[in-house]
Every structure is written in C-alpha cells, then in structure tokens.
Design a protein that fits this description.
The chain is of the alpha/beta class. Helix content is about 45%, strand content about 10%. It contains 18 helices and 14 strands. The strands form five sheets. The chain has a four-stranded mixed sheet with strand order 2-1-3-12. Strand 6 and strand 7 (about 225) form a beta hairpin. The radius of gyration is 26 Å and the shape is globular. Bound molecules: calcium ion (CA). Calcium ion (CA) binds next to loops.
Length: about 475
C-alpha cells in the first residue's frame, strides 16, 4: 500500500514537472536587521519558512542579505546599498525609509493587504491607522506600552491591593519606602519606583490620568498647543517631582541605564519598575527568580490608574510605522515577496516565527500537545507578532498575558503627525529643552514655580513655530 502510494506520488511529481515547466523557483532577496546567513538559527528558520511555503504552493528561495547589526550601522549600510541601485524584494527599515518612499521605490502595501489571506486579520488597531497614513511599512507588533510590575509577595507583605488611582500609587510607593521589604535591617532605603533615561515609561500610565490626552491639545483659547506646555503636563510633572522629593521615585533615573534600573529591582533597592512589553515582563520574572533562587517569586502587574484627568494608556502615535518591512515597487516578484510576508502572519508562519524549533525550543508530544522548553527564553520572532495568533499553549506567563490584554483593551490613537524635514531641528531642540527641565524639576534643581521659564524656553527653541504649523495640519 505504502509502496503504491509512493509510486503514485512520484508519478504525479514527474507529471507535474513535465506539464508545468513554468513552475520554476522564484528567488526573493530579503534584507533585515540581524537576520544573517552566519546565524544558524536564522538560516534554519528561513529553511523552515521555505519548506512551509512550498507545501502551500509557493516555491521560493529566500536569500537573506547580511548587513552590519546595530541600528545606525544598519541604517547606513542599507541606505548605501539602496542608493547604489541594489534594491532587494523585501526590505526591513529601522529609519531612512521616508527618503526611499519619496524616491518611489517602496510599494503601497494597502491594496496587497486588502487582498491578503492572513495579514488583514493579523493587524493591530494602530497598524491599520499607521498604514492608512503611510502605506509603505508593515510592522505587526503590539504597540509599546510600558506597564508597572512589583513582587507579589511584597504587595502581600504590605497587605495592600494593587493601586487603582494616582493617590493609591503614591501610597503604595510610600509603603514600599517605609517598610524594610528587602530585609537588610534598614527601613527607608528602598525606592517605590525606579526608571531609566527619561520619564517616558511613567507617562505610559500617568499621561491620561493627568489629562495629557495626546501630543496636541487645545488651550483655553481653543488653539492647538503641544501637550508638553499644558497645565495637565505640569500637574503630572508636579506628581513625579513630589514622588522624587519624598524618596519614592529614583532621582538617578536620568543616569540609570536599563540594566541599572533592573538591578535595583532585583536587589530590592526599588519596589516597582516598568516593563516595556509583555515579553520583557516575563524576562523580569525569570531574572528576579534567578536573583532569588528557591523563592518562586511572582510579579504582579499593577493597573492603569485613574486620576484627575482620566484614565488609560498613553495615546499611540499612528502617524507612521517607525520601522518595519517594505516591498520594493520595482521588484519583478512582488506577488511572491508579498506571499512571504502574508505567510508570516498566518497561524503556520507564526508557529514557526514565535515557537522556535521542535525539540529545541519546544517539544511536541505524540498527541500533538506542545511544551515549551527553557530554551524558548532565548528565542525571538524575526518577523511578526500577529494580533490573532493563538499559541497551542500559553507562551506568556499570566502576568505578561494580563499586560497584553490591557494593551488589547486600551488603545487610543494620538494626533501626532510626521514633521516636514525642515522642522527636524525644532523637534530635536524642543525635546532637549523638555527632557532637561523635567530632570531639573524631578531632581529638585528647579522648582515648579519656574514652569513659565520652561515654557518660554520651549517655545523659543521651536515650540511656537511647531504649534503654528500644527494648526495648519490638525482640525
Ligand atoms: Ca531596607
């Protein structure tokens, strides 16, 4: 029986080969950051994708192109390659895409997506909005929405419920500070909250609470102003500064790198930190357990609080994708290039891209059930994180899944837009003025009574010119 089947299959294959010589293999050239022919896992994933595509009727040889890693090195090398006229079929951008779109070498993806089999159902709400504003980049990932976590056993020890208002957050930070949860015998030497670089992570849950509803807001006179210079922003910064003054928020946040921030959390010098994504929250859980062997520590996700201005995750910039995959408009194989991207958004493509390899990152039992191995923590998606993908077993911990559920349930589109190139110096200068003053307010180097001085400096650095332009763009 088996022999008969094999013979029949062979005959069919031969017949196919004779009848359809046009079914030749298509070569698709793909360039993506850190997707390399020198990385065995990358090579193995590409081979798995080719095999699955072939099974689905697409005989495609995907040739990846090695470019240097590191964002600026990649952007530079990619720019040089494209300007030399070497334009791969699929191009991953992490900057530099607008110039290429203006040259007309990037395909409008919206008609392709409309006719796609999988991508149209795999998009996140912000992807849809970004594509309608800028149809050249596809980056199917949940929006970045940092959310706070703390040790569940510390919350239990304090006898407190997760905070649901900004006042309750302040009370929690105070309680963490006043107790001796790290058990070093000294109360008062644990920060409620730490961060790194900027206050952007905090803004993720506190912007809406204080009424910072988006990048542009209307002032009392009905004119558009940047939210950076509004009373709502001032109230939020006052809150951050008060936390810092009371020793609840880390005054060293500006100089903290991300690993210093994490280290303060694992060693008990800070009670709460923000995780930038659900996956990162799971990394924090793993590292916390590594730092405290045998304790089986759980992290609790803290809620998005309500405040005097409202409640919700910060508005998401939908002006365009800042990174993502493009298809060359001058490719001779657009159909097959798009077929590769479409497949990566399918259940089968996502299974390859998200679960790693059988017997390495997961095992599949005889009954088909999947168990992830410890190796899964070293695996990362090379392409997409489809909104509709269902893993065969939960890939995220319950805490990280809760963070993803919050992101899914709480999306607000921002009204930021793409600046014309001549505004780049103003955008940079105002951002620097803002970050410098926020740091001064939080460390106590400047008092909130100097708010008007900050606003003047901000407007002089380009804020006024930017607001005038914004009024012509926004309705
Ligand atoms: Ca202590």
């Amino acid at each position: 029986m088996l022999k008969k089947l094999l013979l029949a299959t062979t005959a069919m294959a031969m017949l196919g080969a004779l009848a359809a010589p046009a079914m030749a293999q298509t070569t698709i050239r793909l360039v993506s950051k850190d997707l390399l022919t020198t990385n065995p896992d990358d090579v193995k994933e590409i081979e798995a994708i080719e095999a699955a595509l072939k099974k689905n009727g697409h005989d495609i040889d995907i040739q990846t192109i090695d470019l240097p890693g590191g964002t600026s090195a990649y952007v530079d090398a990619l720019g040089i390659m494209l300007l030399s006229g070497d334009i791969p079929d699929i191009i991953y951008f992490q900057g530099g895409d607008q110039k290429m779109a203006e040259q007309g070498i990037l395909e409008d993806l919206n008609p392709w997506i409309e006719n796609s089999e999988y991508i149209k159902d795999a998009l996140w709400p912000h992807n849809v909005e970004r594509l309608s504003n800028y149809p050249y980049l596809l980056y199917i990932y949940p929006p970045r929405a940092p959310q706070p976590v703390m040790r569940q056993d510390w919350l239990d020890e304090l006898g407190m419920e997760p905070p649901t208002t900004v006042e309750e957050y302040e009370a929690l930070f105070q309680a963490i500070h006043d107790a001796d949860l790290d058990g070093d015998g000294t109360p008062g030497n644990t920060l409620g909250l730490t961060g790194f670089g900027t206050t952007a992570e905090l803004d993720s849950i506190f912007n809406q609470a204080f009424g910072v509803t988006g990048t542009w807001m209307k002032n009392a006179e009905g004119a558009w102003v940047n939210s950076r210079v509004t009373d709502a922003e001032k109230a939020k910064i006052e809150f951050y500064a008060r936390l810092a003054e009371k020793g609840l928020f880390d005054k060293e946040y500006v100089t903290n790198t991300f690993d210093v921030k994490e280290d303060k959390f694992y060693t008990g010098k800070a009670g709460v930190i923000f995780g930038s994504s659900p996956e990162v929250i799971d990394i924090y859980i793993g590292k916390m357990r590594q730092a405290h062997p045998g304790e089986e520590i759980e992290l609790a996700l803290l809620p998005v609080p309500s405040g005097p201005g409202g409640q919700g995750l910060a508005a998401v910039d939908v002006s365009k994708e800042s990174r993502g995959f493009a298809v060359s408009s001058i490719s001779e194989n657009k159909e097959e290039a798009f077929a590769v991207l479409d497949f990566m958004a399918s259940q089968e493509g996502q299974n390859i891209d998200r679960m790693g390899f059988p017997d390495v990152h997961h095992t599949v039992a005889a009954d088909g059930s999947v168990i992830f191995t410890d190796q899964i923590s070293t695996w990362y998606a090379r392409f997409f994180n489809a909104a509709n993908w269902q893993p065969p077993v939960p890939l995220l911990s319950p805490t990280a899944q809760a963070a993803l559920d919050t992101i899914k349930a709480d999306f607000t589109a921002d009204n930021a837009f793409v600046w014309p190139a001549e505004f780049a110096p103003d955008v940079d200068a105002t951002e620097q003025v803002y970050r410098a003053w926020v740091a001064k307010f939080i460390t106590g180097e400047a008092s909130l009574e100097q708010w008007d001085a900050f606003v003047s400096e901000y407007n002089a650095a380009g804020g006024t010119r930017m607001a005038e332009y914004a009024a012509t763009v926004l309705q």
